[in-house]
Each structure stands twice: as structure tokens, then as C-alpha cells.
Amino acid sequence: MRSSRPLRRVLLTALAGLLSTGMAASAAAQQPAMPDAPPEDVATIDAIIAAVYESISGPAGPRDWDRFRSLFVPGARLIPTGRTAAGEASVQVWTPDEYAERVAPYFNESPFFEVEAARIVEEFGSIAHVFSTYESRRDPADAPFQRGINSFQLFNDGTRWWVVTIFWDAERDGNPIPAKYLGG
């Protein structure tokens, strides 16, 4: 008599595959539809970095969150770092939608303009790392009230650039921006 173990193994493997496919389809159905990016926003590293800054900047009022979301690969993260009131290092991890939900009430009531002041780019194959020094202002003509560095991780799929991660820290007492990140 032949053992049924190989058949059982095949059936269990097939069942596991069906279950994981079903769970993946269910998870995908729960994700909001990713809007299409304007091609000019994602054609180059320069363009996608500019599009990120443009999409969060403006006078008090709503932002174009569809444009913002269209810049990010599915599963992307925005990760601010900083210090707690007790002075301990902290980190938060958000999806693009969570970031938009968190900052939209502030942007609706307050003008906010963030611009790039300097940049260092490292590229290899289909990936790029961009250290983008930023300045935040209430009015484009004002002196910045905040500066820091956005660390962008980008991916090029052969047709466009995607933001995978934006990881940032702000300048503060004891954490000045080094001269090499301030440009010439």
C-alpha cells in the first residue's frame, strides 16, 4: 500500500497557497486605490522630490492628497524622528494616508511652505538615496522657522520613480545641520 503522505503534502501546500492568495486579495481590496501620478512628477529624481515638496506646501487650506499619494510605492512609509519632552529619541512610522490625516488639520488652518535648500544623491541600479535639506516657512518670503533633513529612498521600476521611504529629523539645539548638507 502506498503512503498518502506525498498527496497530503501536495494538498496542504495547495490549500496554503489558496488561503494566502485569498488573504492577499482581501488585503488589497481594503487598500485605497492608488491614484495615477502625473508623468512629469515621477520622470526624474528632481521631479519626484519637487512634487513631494509642492504637494505639502501652500497657503492655509486643503492639499492635493491624491497627488501626494501617487508619488509613493504601495507599502511606503514616512518616518519622522525627534525627541520626547524628556529628551529621549523617538520615531513614528506612518503610511502616506496616515501622514495626510495627521497633518491635514494643521495645513487647513495654517500656511506651510517646505523647500529644498540642498541635496546629496547616491544612485545605484534602480535605487537612489537622497539627503534633502529642507527649510519650512509660513510664507515663502519669510526666514525658515524650521530646518532639517529628509532622507528619501527612491525606486525606479523602469517607467517611473517611486518614493519608498521619507525618514527625517529636524535641526534643534544639539543637532545642527552639518555644513556638508547645506550646499555650496
Whole-number average pLDDT?
88
What is Rg?
21 Å
Stretches with pLDDT under 50, minimum 5 residues: 7-16, 18-29
Q: Mind describing the biggest β-sheet?
A: 6 strands, mixed
Structural class: alpha+beta
Strand portion, in percent? 25-35%
Domain module tally: 2
The CATH architecture of the largest domain comes to Roll
SSE order, one letter for each helix or strand: HHHHEEHEEEE
What global shape is seen? globular
Helical segment tally?
5
CATH topology of the largest domain: Nuclear Transport Factor 2, Chain: A
CATH secondary-structure class of the largest domain: Alpha Beta
Strands side by side in the biggest sheet:
2-1-6-5-4-3
Q: Which bin fits the share of residues in helices?
A: 25-40%
The total beta strand count reads 6
Note the gap between the termini: 80 Å
Question: Which key features would you list for this structure?
Answer:
5 helices, Nuclear Transport Factor 2, Chain: A, 184 residues, alpha+beta, 2 domains
Structure explained in plain terms:
With 184 residues, the chain is of the alpha+beta class. It folds into 2 domains: 1-30; 39-177, Nuclear Transport Factor 2, Chain: A (Roll), CATH 3.10.450.50. It is 34% helix and 32% strand. It has helices spanning 5-30, 39-42, 45-56, 65-70, 96-109; strands at residues 72-83, 89-91, 113-124, 127-137, 146-156, 161-170. The protein has a 6-stranded mixed sheet with strand order 2-1-6-5-4-3. It is globular, with a radius of gyration of 21 Å. The N and C termini lie far apart (80 Å).
